[in-house]
Automatic annotation (TrEMBL):
PANTHER family: CHARGED MULTIVESICULAR BODY PROTEIN, CHARGED MULTIVESICULAR BODY PROTEIN 6
Key words of the record: Endosome, Membrane, Protein transport, Transport
Localisation: Endosome membrane
Protein name stated in the entry: Charged multivesicular body protein 6
Keyword Acetylation assigned: no
Similarity-based family: Belongs to the SNF7 family.
Domain of life from the UniProt record: Eukaryota
InterPro entries, A to Z: Snf7_fam
Keyword Zinc-finger applies: no
Gene Ontology terms: cellular component: ESCRT III complex; multivesicular body
GO terms, biological process: late endosome to vacuole transport via multivesicular body sorting pathway; protein transport; vesicle budding from membrane
Length: 202
């Protein structure tokens, strides 16, 4: 019972494509038979001509010509079947794409419902009210302060800015370069004391 549920569902479109492909295969088999008849009639006509039976060779060639016309018709039918199968398969792809587009449009509609104009306007109003409330609080506090208090607040604000700038500058300072090690003198270079003695002696 569970095995039947796992089988893929065969749609009417699948059956139609399968039937068309079966017809195509039958036409191809029929073409092979006609080709075999053409080859046989050609061999008969050749043998009759070699035997001197011109009229029999002519009949064989006429039968061959008729079979060739049938082969031409089967070529046309085969081409029509191939085009029909391709058209149906492409149409199924188009239907699948349209279904995907439809689902995408439904998702967009749901998103637009959540982001309607009223919701956006309400959010903007709430944001504007919050900013206005903040301005009123600041204005009220500044009106309750004396001029000296306001100056003190401005100085404190300036000091905070300077502290932040100093901390940022400290973090950006480059590390100290290590002191250079004394260069070893070569045997050719004279000792400083010897240089002084020579200078005095001179």
């Amino acid at each position: 019972m569970g095995g039947n549920q796992s089988l893929p569902k065969i749609t009417p479109q699948d059956k139609a494509i399968l039937d068309l492909k079966l017809q195509r295969d039958k036409l191809k088999q029929y073409q092979k038979k006609i080709q075999a008849v053409l080859d046989r009639e050609h061999a008969i006509a050749k043998a009759q001509m070699a035997a001197g039976h011109k009229d029999r060779a002519l009949i064989a060639l006429r039968r061959r010509k008729y079979q060739q016309s049938l082969l031409g018709k089967t070529d046309e039918q085969l081409e029509n079947l191939e085009q029909l199968v391709s058209t149906i398969e492409f149409s199924l792809v188009e239907v699948s794409v349209l279904h995907g587009l439809k689902q995408g449009n439904e998702v967009l509609k749901e998103i637009h419902k959540e982001m309607n104009v009223e919701s956006v306007e309400k959010l903007l109003e709430e944001t504007a009210e919050a900013r206005e409330y903040q301005r009123e609080i600041g204005k009220m506090l500044s009106n309750n302060l004396t001029l000296e208090d306001e100056e003190a607040v401005q100085k404190e604000l300036l000091a905070l800015q300077q502290d932040i700038t100093a901390e940022a500058t400290t973090e950006l300072e480059l590390p100290n370069v290590p002191a250079a090690e004394p260069v070893a003198r070569t045997s050719e270079e004279p000792e400083p004391a010897l240089v002084k003695k020579v200078a005095i002696a001179g």
